[in-house]
Amino acid sequence: MAAILSQYSTTGFYKAPVSKALMGSVFLACTALNTPALAHLRPYLLCRLPESFAEPWRLLTSRLTFLDTKDLVCGALLIYYFRIFERRFGSHKFSSYLLATGLLATLFEAAVVYAIRPLGFHDGLLPPGPYCLIFPLFVNFFFDIPRVVTTHFVGFPVTGKTLTYILGLQVCSTSSANFVTALCGIAAGLVWRSGVLNWLSVPGFVARACDLTIGRLLRSQAPALGAVGATLELQRQQQMELLEQQLQINRARDHRTRHGQGYAETLVGPDHHGWQANQNEPQPAGVNNAEQQEEQVARLVDMGFDRESVVNALRAANNDLNTATNLLLQEG
């Protein structure tokens, strides 16, 4: 799995030790529980309500890892994609976020399952795995990551976020139990975003102790400067795609100047965030190009991207914000 992930990313788990620990522990635990030596421990990671209320520790153990390989693959990919929020929040705040939303999602799920099981909509078995940590992050993913259209398929726009949403739908559509888990996780993410849970956080001394101990083992090296892809073939392919996209944007700008905005939008597709329109508006006199570029860098860094990656992406995209964002999302 590591080879598959590294093929499409040059940044890996740089500045994301918590995500690295979560993904690594889930992968190792699932692999170990599928060996004959430890297969007898699998029942301890199952939680069925309301019977398990007599053994409340099962609510915790059932969150530790996935038991099926297919769930592991989807869950690990989602953890990998969402590591961008650890870079944006910082490891301490990200850990606090996982703690708060994970606890709240578990409480929501237990209450909902207890209420609907008599109606026959749920068998009471909670899906094993850290879904309570993953699904709340879809709230941040929806609100904070821009929707940049990369292409169209059968008339529907395909964005840099489409694959992540498909993985989420794949997980929650597996069963009614997974669907309930997903809804409870999203509800927990919305509650956190409202600011109600800001008081719940990992103590500072605990965070510092973890950083000085296991944090040293989990640190990842910074990505190679100027790297675009994992192989020369991928680099050439991405550079050709960027060049083609930049040519289309430049052609659209020329047609917008000559024929108006409508024809240009036909060439490059609708822009849902207004970035392209804002970039094409006449700039006030005296605005320095360096200041404009620094503003673009700050905007992308605030989204959680590493500054060096942002500078490289803007350079490769000829300072076009849409193209640079698309490149960063593809690298992520």
Largest sheet: 2 strands, antiparallel
Residue-averaged pLDDT: 80
Structural Rg: 22 Å
Number of strands: 2
Beta strand %: under 5%
Strand order of the largest sheet: 1-2
| Overall SS class | mainly alpha
pLDDT < 50 runs, ≥5 residues: 1-10, 225-234, 261-287
- In whole angstroms, how far apart are the ends? 16 Å
- Outline: globular
> What's the order of the H and E elements?
HHHHHHHHEEHHHHHHHHHH
- Helical content stands at 55-70%
Alpha plus pi helix count: 18
How would you describe what is shown here?
The protein has a two-stranded antiparallel ribbon with strand order 1-2. It is 62% helix and 3% strand. β1 and β2 (156-159) form a beta hairpin. By secondary structure, the chain is mostly helical. α13 (232-259) runs antiparallel to α14. The longest helix is centred in the C-terminal third of the chain and has 28 residues, at 232-259.
Short structural summary:
This protein is mainly alpha-helical.
Write a concise keyword list for the protein shown above.
332 residues; mainly alpha; two-stranded antiparallel ribbon; 18 helices; disordered N terminus
